[in-house]
Write a structure and sequence with these properties.
It is built from three helices and three strands, in the order ααβββα. By secondary structure, it is mostly helical. The protein folds into two domains: 56 residues; 62 residues, Zinc/RING finger domain, C3HC4 (zinc finger) (Herpes Virus-1, 2-Layer Sandwich).
């Protein structure tokens, strides 16, 4: 009878050991799966960041930072009203919107390169990139 009890005890211990091994194995698989998910997220994030860098090239001279500071710097750039007779002496097309300048249009001159644009068009451009849309010179002559 004692032998039967010992065999039954061994079977119970073996069953408990098997359950413990299955639990350990499942835990290890979950940990490895979690690590794999984290690595996948990191890879996708880095890949997405590199795509963003390819889509928006930096030509240097970009003014990073607060949009209010950029708007303040924009106000320092010269503005003028396009007048009659100016068609002969300068470029008559805005390189941002590709529309011709009309008499009375509000225009902005970039002093570093002397290119002119509609003020609205170039202001929106310069809020994203502080470089001239035509020649990539820093807009205000400073970087």
């Amino acid at each position: 009878m004692r032998i039967i009890e010992e065999l039954m005890m061994k079977k119970k211990l073996t069953a408990i050991a098997k359950q413990a091994m299955v639990g350990i194995l499942v835990s290890m698989l979950l940990v490895l799966g979690g690590i794999e998910v984290l690595l996948l997220i990191q890879t996708c994030t880095l890949w997405g960041a590199s795509l963003g860098a390819m889509e928006r090239p930096n030509y240097g001279g970009d003014q990073e930072g607060n949009e209010d500071l950029k708007r303040e710097a924009l106000q320092k750039l010269p503005r003028y009203e396009f007048g009659a007779g100016e068609e002969d002496s300068m470029r008559v097309e805005c390189a941002v919107c590709l529309d011709n300048f009309e008499v009375g249009d509000d225009c902005r001159l970039l002093p570093a390169c002397t290119h002119s644009f509609h003020a609205y068009c170039v202001d929106n451009w310069l809020l994203r990139s502080w470089n001239c849309p035509v020649c990539r010179t820093p807009a205000g002559g400073w970087s």
